[in-house]
């Protein structure tokens, strides 16, 4: 719901909009979580108070988004042209997707990554002790506030999900989020396909090739395959396989259009979400906004006002980066 | 430049491995750049990855990333995560699919592309570490069962577990305390063995205040624990749980915030005992930010105690609010009154950023005072560009330079890449070089390749050679196996006769550092005299001259000398044969790896008999012949020395010792 009004304003068609609103809504939600989590952690408030305030905020925002969305309509309605070959492509892609989802449910590969030992434990400490970043993840002893980590709200967002759902953190991160993020990723890739390809068959062809590339892309622990199909609830993984594909796809769609303040605001909120995923997010957000914007100026006319997107997309990461490095120097 | 290029090549190989994806990526970018009609899509999925790669593979980024992370190859490799690698491949291949008009032909092209990817790639789900999960939560089978058993203990408990359970235990229940997490320490590695060393794990777990250990369930493991007198607290299909009992241990109490409130050293019967510092219990207090602000010591009777090495009963700290840097430290007596420790009452610290640059000393009223041991009230510390201390300046209570107990007001130091001192210069209160009591203002050193001093020279205020009060301007060292020679020279570099009558001195050591002989030489190098140390030289007609049977007391205990009854505190028994005439250890083995740590401290030259080798506070050992019951402390060694003539004698002695040990039920 959070993403729908923005999708209606930015997406070129209804089909594109529906696939955009889901991942966009997710990241807008985590952006607001990031805005709240840092001050709550710094001021020593409890995790449960953060959850309650966040629920209130998100409820209000969702309500406002729903009302706003009713007043908007998509820029165009796409006419779907479905052929028997489209069915073959679609079934193939869905089969590959189900294959990945079933194996995500049934196969175990968490042990080989030590990040699992840290991420799940931090979330479990947050949930169990009702504190934010004051427990040593490896020993369980109370420690001083880890200021650097407070920037990374993605560490405790799964704890929020466990808090509201009642599901154990282990089940939430190892299984539920594992499957959820794969689905979210492919929704994002479907949005990407609607941006890049006009024919339905081409879109499914793209998704098929991409699925196979992912399944067979296990060439090192840093490959995108490990990010999507491995430990995919870790912040830097979400950044790599979900956030940046969404960002780049939106850039393809919006950099070709005149400057839009709406897109700028979305970039601002997305940049907050990226910074909350990992500190790498602050640095690479800058690169992933600046470079495409600047390059596009050479290809799509000299619309210099698009440089303002750099301000929208890089301001918050710059602030978070300053906080991070200041904390490193002082603490 | 070559080093940088080689490093880039290493990163690329490190990231991509040997499969085809690297080439598919490059091909994808080329296809996008050439064929993609949408200019924005071309810039995002064609030019952007190219520019990103140029952005990370260049000299500037190379230097920046090395500055931030010293060994950044893992971080470099992570940079690839932020390039749309797979999308470039897929979108590139789609340029070929788009070229085809008919949909059945598109299917063929997609199949061909898929085959290309499958042949050139590695199936993620066929990786050797991929396995069917034991349960929906993807944690090892039986892990939850163990956690449920441990939860029955309602206390906050400290649990040490075998690999890979260490990764999961706090994921399942964050109420547990653990001595290690994903990176295991020695205890964790020991627990993870198929058959852990029972005595070792129990003692180590006791030291780390562990309440329970969890090991893998197998017959050999269970038998090993049983033979050591331990039955499992609980057993599951995959794990055995043991409570830490029967060994001296540290008992911890946690406060409601899960901070350590107190630690008490207890014997195996839960009675508080005093450690080698003379304290049984330490209590801790924390400030609002969680930093430890006070530590107080108690004896086994619960009364405030003084640490052996000093006289304080408590230490108090104060920290800076935001940074948490230590701001002051003060020692207190039993009445919580400031106490003088090492010449001062309170120490306050000054920083530049996070670097300590000064210390100031204060009396019990908070007024600046000159330390009674070093004679200055504050000092300023300076560092070289590698962050190593390269100088100090000393000041009095009003901030003026002052002469310290070392005889100078400041010094500067020059260090080489290994951190060895190449040059040290001393200054007076006027900031000018000054001669110190030893007769020089500057010391210059040259080192051998293995870090021993080759030459040490003394210079005056103007950096010219000067004779020190010892009677020489420089000394040269020569090393020849166990022989070290010192030769003395004057300001002109000529050999000089010291006041005691020699120009060079050589000493020979045995393997344990005892001096066997000392030889004195004249200016021409002629031998003036030699002194032999009979005790250390052990000249004997036969090849084997000494046999030692020793035991390392790991913790407290007692020993009855007449019957070789040794208690459970023994953690190492070893035997050695030492040949005094060749300074060789011919036979040196034991049942604990700690044996190697003690090889050098045998006083194997003692007459036959039982000895206790006390571990002193400064790390040295002093031996004492045992004639009656002795009280052991942690780190002490028991040694029974035999002087023998033949190898056969050694066999008999060792055999008899082992028989005694086995019969007594120990070891």
Features:
heterodimer; B: about 675 residues; alpha+beta; 19-stranded antiparallel β-sheet; 14 helices; disordered C terminus
General description of the model:
The complex is a heterodimer of chains A (331) and B (667). Helix content of chain A is 73%, strand content 1%. The longest helix of chain A has 29 residues, at 14-42. Chain A has 331 residues and is an all-alpha fold. Chain A has helices at residues 4-10, 14-42, 47-71, 84-106, 115-129, 147-150, 157-165, 169-196, 200-215, 224-229, 235-254, 261-277, 279-299, 308-330, and one strand at residues 107-108. Chain B has a 19-stranded antiparallel β-sheet. The longest helix of chain B is centred in the N-terminal third of the chain and has 18 residues, at 39-56. Chain B is extended. The chains are: A mainly alpha (331), B alpha+beta (667). At the A-B interface, helix 4, strand 1, helix 5, helix 8 and helix 9 of A face helix 1, helix 3, helix 5, helix 6 and helix 7 of B. Strand 1 (107-108) of chain A pairs antiparallel with strand 1 of chain B.
Write a brief caption for the model.
The complex is a heterodimer of chains A (331) and B (667). Chain A has helices at residues 4-10, 14-42, 47-71, 84-106, 115-129, 147-150, 157-165, 169-196, 200-215, 224-229, 235-254, 261-277, 279-299, 308-330, and one strand spanning 107-108.
């Amino acid at each position: 719901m959070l993403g729908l009004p923005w999708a209606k304003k930015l997406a070129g068609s209804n089909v594109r909009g529906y696939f955009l609103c889901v991942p966009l809504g997710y990241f807008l939600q985590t952006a607001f979580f990031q805005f709240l989590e840092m001050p709550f952690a710094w001021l020593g408030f409890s995790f449960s108070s953060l959850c309650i305030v966040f629920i209130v905020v998100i409820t209000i925002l969702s309500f406002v988004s729903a009302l706003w969305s009713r007043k908007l309509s998509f820029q165009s309605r796409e006419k779907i042209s479905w052929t028997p070959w489209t069915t073959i492509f679609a079934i193939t892609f869905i089969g590959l997707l189900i294959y990945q989802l079933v194996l995500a449910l049934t196969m175990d590969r968490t042990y080989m990554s030590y990040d699992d030992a840290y991420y799940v434990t931090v979330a479990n400490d947050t949930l169990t002790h009702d504190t934010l970043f004051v427990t040593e993840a490896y020993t369980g002893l109370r420690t001083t506030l880890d200021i650097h980590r407070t920037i990374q709200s993605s560490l405790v967002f799964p704890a929020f999900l466990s808090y509201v759902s009642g599901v154990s953190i282990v089940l939430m991160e190892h299984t539920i989020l594992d499957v959820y993020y794969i689905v979210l990723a492919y929704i994002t890739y479907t949005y990407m396909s609607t941006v890049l390809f006009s024919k339905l068959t081409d879109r499914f062809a793209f998704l098929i090739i991409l699925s196979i590339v992912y399944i067979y892309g296990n060439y090192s622990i840093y490959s995108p395959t490990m990010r999507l199909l491995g430990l995919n609830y870790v912040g830097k993984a979400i950044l790599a396989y979900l956030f940046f594909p969404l960002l780049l796809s939106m850039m393809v769609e919006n950099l070709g259009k005149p400057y839009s303040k709406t897109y700028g605001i979305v970039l601002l909120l997305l940049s907050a979400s990226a910074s909350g995923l990992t500190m790498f997010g602050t640095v690479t957000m800058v690169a992933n906004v600046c470079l495409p914007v600047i390059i596009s100026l050479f290809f799509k006319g000299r619309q210099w006002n698009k440089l303002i997107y750099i301000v929208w997309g890089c301001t918050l990461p710059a602030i978070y980066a300053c906080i991070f490095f200041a904390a490193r120097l002082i603490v | 430049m070559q080093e940088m290029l080689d490093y880039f090549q290493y990163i690329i190989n490190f990231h991509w491995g040997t499969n085809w994806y690297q080439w598919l990526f490059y091909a994808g970018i080329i296809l996008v750049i050439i064929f993609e009609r949408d200019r924005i899509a071309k810039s995002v999925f064609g030019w952007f990855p190219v520019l990103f790669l140029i952005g990370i593979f260049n000299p500037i980024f190379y230097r920046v990333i090395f500055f931030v992370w010293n060994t950044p190859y893992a971080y470099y490799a992570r940079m690839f995560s932020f390039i749309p690698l797979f999308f470039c491949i897929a979108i590139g291949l789609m340029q070929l699919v788009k070229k085809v008009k008919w949909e059945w032909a598109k299917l063929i092209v997609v199949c061909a592309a898929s085959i290309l990817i499958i042949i050139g790639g590695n199936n993620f789900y066929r990786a050797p570490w991929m396995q069917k999960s034991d349960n929906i939560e993807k944690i090892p089978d039986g892990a939850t069962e163990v956690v449920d058993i441990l939860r029955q203990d309602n206390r906050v408990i400290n649990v040490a577990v075998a690999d890979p359970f260490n990764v999961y235990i706090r994921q399942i229940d964050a109420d547990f305390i653990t001595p290690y997490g994903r990176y295991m320490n020695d205890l964790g590695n020991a627990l993870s063995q198929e058959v852990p060393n029972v005595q070792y794990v129990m003692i180590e777990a006791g030291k780390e205040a562990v309440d329970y250990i969890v090991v893998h369930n197998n017959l050999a493991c269970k038998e090993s624990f049983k033979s050591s007198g331990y039955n499992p607290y609980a057993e599951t299909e995959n794990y055995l749980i043991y409570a830490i009992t029967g060994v001296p241990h540290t008992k911890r109490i946690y406060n409601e915030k899960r901070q350590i409130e107190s630690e008490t050293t207890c014997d195996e019967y839960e009675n508080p005992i005093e450690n080698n510092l003379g304290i049984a219990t330490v209590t801790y207090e924390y400030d609002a930010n969680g930093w430890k602000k006070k530590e107080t010591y108690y004896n086994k009777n619960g009364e405030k105690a003084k640490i052996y090495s000093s006289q304080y009963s408590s230490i108090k700290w104060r920290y800076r609010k935001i940074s948490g840097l230590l701001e002051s430290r003060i020692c207190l007596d039993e009445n919580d009154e400031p106490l003088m420790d090492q010449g001062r009452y309170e120490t306050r610290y000054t920083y530049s950023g996070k670097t300590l640059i000064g210390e100031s000393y204060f009396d019990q009223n908070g007024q600046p005072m000159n330390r009674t041991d070093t004679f200055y009230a504050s000092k300023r510390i300076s560092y070289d560009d590698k962050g190593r201390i390269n100088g100090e300046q000393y000041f009095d209570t009003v901030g003026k330079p002052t002469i310290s107990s070392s005889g100078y007001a400041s010094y500067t130091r020059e260090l080489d890449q290994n951190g060895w001192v190449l040059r040290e210069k001393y200054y007076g209160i006027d900031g000018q070089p000054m001669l110190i009591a030893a007769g020089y203002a500057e010391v210059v050193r040259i080192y051998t390749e293995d870090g021993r001093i080759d030459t040490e020279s003394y210079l005056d205020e103007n950096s010219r050679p000067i004779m020190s009060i010892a009677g020489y301007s420089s000394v040269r060292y020569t090393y020849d196996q166990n022989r070290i020679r010192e030769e003395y020279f004057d300001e002109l570099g000529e050999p000089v006769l010291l006041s005691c009558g020699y120009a060079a001195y050589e000493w020979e050591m045995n393997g344990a550092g005892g001096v066997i002989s000392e030889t004195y030489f004249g200016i021409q190098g002629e031998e003036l005299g030699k002194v032999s140390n009979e005790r250390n030289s052990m000249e004997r007609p036969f090849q084997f001259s000494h046999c030692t049977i020793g035991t390392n007391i790991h913790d407290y205990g007692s020993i009855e000398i007449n019957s070789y009854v040794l208690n459970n505190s023994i953690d190492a028994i070893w035997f050695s044969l030492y040949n005094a005439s060749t300074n060789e250890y011919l036979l040196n083995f034991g049942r604990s790896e700690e044996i190697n740590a003690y090889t050098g401290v045998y006083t194997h030259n003692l007459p036959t008999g039982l000895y206790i080798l006390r571990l002193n506070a400064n790390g040295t050992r002093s031996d004492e012949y045992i004639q009656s019951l002795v009280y052991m402390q942690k780190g002490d060694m028991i040694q029974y020395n035999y002087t023998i003539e033949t190898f056969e004698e050694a066999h008999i002695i060792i055999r008899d010792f082992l028989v005694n040990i086995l019969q007594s039920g120990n070891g």
